[in-house]
User: Fold this.
Amino acid sequence: MNERQDMLRSLPAIDRVLREKSLQDLSQQLPHEILSQAVQELIASLRQEILETGETISPERLQPANIAATAALNCRQILQPSLRKVINATGTLLHTNLGRAPLSAQSLRAINNVAAGYSNLEFELDNGCRGERYSHVESLLTQLTGAEAALVVNNNSGAVLLALTALGKGREAIVSRGELVEIGGAFRIPEVMEAGGVILREVGASNRTHLHDYQQAINENTSLLLKVHTSNYRIVGFTKEVAAAELLPLARENDLILMEDLGSGLLLDLSGYGLEREPTVPEVVKAGVDVITFSGDKLLGGPQAGIIVGRADLIEKLRKHPLARALRIDKLTLAALESTLRLYLQPEQALQEIPVLNMFTAAPEQQQQRCQKLFEQLDSAALAADIELVADASRVGGGAMPLTELADWAVAINPHSGSTADLAKRLRTYSPAVVTRVHNDRLLVNLRAVFADEEALLAQILIAVLKTEG
Ligand SMILES: *Cc1c(COP(=O)(O)O)cnc(C)c1O
Assistant:
């Protein structure tokens, strides 16, 4: 009892702790209240420990210098950015949780140029008149896709919402039951339609929809035929879907708008590189679809954006709709998008310079060599772990091409002590963070989404973390 009272009495005063050098050093960077609160919390928790456990607390822990050092450590966390760089060793290229597509060097330069000062965002330099922000990408988009007109907004969900609202509000849109997709939880086609005031008319069955299903559903209140890319799932087996090209005559006969939400939106055919064959945006435009929407940060490899291409009269309606203003693209995104699109003018250059395209098209032998090198570095570091070079598969991710697996390699690590999950956590909480995959109780390090200039650092981090494991 007496001992407990002694310990309570030896808890230092807050002001005394605040005078310690480790906290004084921080006083230039953080306000007094934050430092003071951190000390208060530590002293309160020590007091509680003394009262509740009744166990002896070592006198060192009660010393002002030690309490100050812990408080300073906690306070320094506040100075760390929350959103920060991650090395993606998962083998998933468009990892939604890791920020989808990394940007090209050209895009970073473009952002830098525009962000640091003023720009001609909505200003025509020729005549000094007010201009349109969309003008910076519209002609690139029409050139690259063959469409009459184009518009860009904040993301593809916004693009779909804008198009449906502006073109179909209060009227019916016909969609196949096999295409009522949900993307990433909050984006569901039926709910987006409801939000846009469009009446959903479902036709067909989950696995099979025929042209006559669409035909029978058409009435005087129909405004749209909507096709939605089943980005993140596939219906296999006894299936039938009606391609946009087959729907076109029906749309024309009945004076309806044919719209297709492509999701990813490929500008180049990548099937020669082991990716699924999918209609590219220019092919869909050529097929005669009136309005096409797709993302900027999926297979296109640019910034988060929603791209809408199609018939000039319809795009004009979208441009004038109040929602367009609410969903408008910001200047940094626009700079990144314009520079990304410009790279596509030369397909070879796009494949080389756009990070995700470069990663998708990397040859398996090249990946094997990179993994072999990492394997040798780890193997020769005499770590307390079993290290192996194993065959692996990379994925597209971002809810695109769910069946595509790119032949690949990985370094598998099995620590001698401590769990694999714990090792994965230590890598995630390292600075910079490293995100890996755990499969069959082994940690897999896949290099497909790791940049060449991150390789040496990744090896160093793995060695450092494994040396301190267990
Ligand atoms: C990804 C996707 C969306 C949503 O696009 P965001 O750019 O993530 O808003 C909408 N429709 C389809 C078919 C998609 O694949």
Remarks:
- Residues 155-157, 160, 181, 183, 187, 228-229, 231, 261, 263-264, 295, 306, 399 surround pyridoxal-5'-phosphate (CB under 6 Å).
- The chain has a mean pLDDT of 94.
